[in-house]
């Protein structure tokens, strides 16, 4: 039953734990199930006799063999017995609302896993436990405490109360749910499976997700990436903090938070991420009523200077563009206008537009047909003119329909901010087919979601192959990390290990390393420069011998490493690293590096391994990316060489699951290539 259809369109529903007490879950769920009794048979089970809404309670499911969907809402001590009863009655799908298992600790998780195994062994599937239920708008299946409005949005949520709020918010904008599933503890049916199911559901236009734990992150990315090619996916998560950096031992670990990993995963899968329940609804509202944008250029059109100026500022702040129009388009827009506040974008009609509002659609057509805009934002009073006259009452909805027709014709979104969005005028605009919002920041956020969803997800990198390299020890030091990366193709300067000051001098002389750099090599010295474990530019044998002697006496490292001092005069220092995330696996990072890496906090992330194209995109996305091309007379550096190193390191991280953190810091990038000046690796349980 891989399609999970029995959870949403069963012919028979059995509720185990139905209660006549109106204050209990068993009563709320039973009454919800009875709402669909015209479409299916409903069995209500409780050992005590009674009835709910005239429907008699059964003492058990004995004699029943077609209980396709079973809802279990019994007290926790009776859970396993009730599940066995449901399976014996032919249940193919079980919704376990009962709580008190995996969320309580290790013992509860063991019990929960055993329950899931029991269900799967019987050829059935289980949603939950600790969930609020399911809903299907088309079949009028309601297994929950409250009702939901019907509509085109598929919802998956780990919070019951939040799902109820989202339903109410959708209803306010004339939308509702196609299907809803509460995942609970995901003991059996998982978030990725539900994404795949809704991807194939014809009645679902957009998938909305609230997740507190995606569990298998790579499965989530795979399912979402396959889905976003067909319909948009919007994600709201909780816990957006730097908690993932606690205890991180490397610079990379300190910069890779849980929130940053989720953002990288969403970018890889083409998922639109929002930061509030309202933002989730705004994105869904826009995606249902407007096509996805094919670019970032926005035409801002309004009937007041203040609205136009604020809209333009917010659009720009959202990372979108408000491009100045060409002289030819400006002349075209000016035709027939007596009064105008500005026509170069934003366009301010200052009340001087046509009496039938048709300048809105005329200008929209001009901008879209001329190829100078990818989306249109109408802002201001539109939606409120109907109160002035019968003429406006007829003209306004007609113009709204013309705008909706244009967005269909050009496959470009037309989003409206109206100060009357919450009134009858706003409803009129929405009924015409326009995504309409009461606050300008809502409209801009919705536009940004349409742009993000319209951008192609990142092409996945080819599966990485383990790099031919010596194995890392359980406590690798710089020399070990360097050997691993160098064998994989990362460029390092000449150098070698030494254990005594005399040996350091011998190595430097044999390899011609002067001026030399000396490093204390020990797994306990992750940040060597902070404790004086690095000496740079030692000019001769005497200076090297003295530095090595002092370093050995003061730090007592496992060994030393001597290498040539790199010329950093024309170079830029980067950090290139990866950290293994518990849910998403290896995550690659690049940022402005050196000793100030955590102060600058200018970095970009992606799931590893990365392609050369993605590596360069990451580099170009840095706030300090202008440094790559040279500033203040400094030459441009070899970006392609830096990207290649990031690709190699990401492949090493992906191919070695025992590595929890690995980084090169700094990676010195010059006009002639790059060279790794330091490296570190941390192995699991080391």
Describe the 3D structure.
The chain is α/β, with parallel strands linked by helices. The protein has 4 domains: 5-238, Rossmann fold (3-Layer(aba) Sandwich); 297-454, Rossmann fold (3-Layer(aba) Sandwich), CATH 3.40.50; 494-564, 2-Layer Sandwich (Dna Ligase, domain 1), CATH 3.30.1490.20; 572-683, ATP-grasp fold, B domain (D-amino Acid Aminotransferase, Chain A, domain 1, 2-Layer Sandwich), CATH 3.30.470.20. Helix content is 36%, strand content 21%. The chain has 21 helices and 29 strands. A 7-stranded mixed β-sheet has the order 9-8-11-10-12-13-14, sandwiched between helices. Helix 5 (191-199) runs parallel beside helix 6 and helix 6 runs parallel beside helix 8. The two termini are 43 Å apart. Mean pLDDT is 91; it is low at 242-255.
* Main pleated sheet: 7 strands, mixed
Secondary-structure class: alpha/beta
3D shape: flat
Instruction: Examine the secondary-structure arrangement and name the CATH architecture of the largest domain.
Output: 3-Layer(aba) Sandwich
CATH homolog superfamily of the largest domain: Succinyl-CoA synthetase domains
Radius of gyration: 31 Å
What do we call the CATH topology of the largest domain?
Answer: Rossmann fold
* Count of helix runs: 21
Helix content: 25-40%
The order of strands across the largest sheet is 9-8-11-10-12-13-14
Overall structural domain count: 4
Distance between the termini: 43 Å
Average of the residue pLDDT scores: 91
Low-confidence stretches: 242-255
Q: Name the CATH class of the largest domain.
A: Alpha Beta
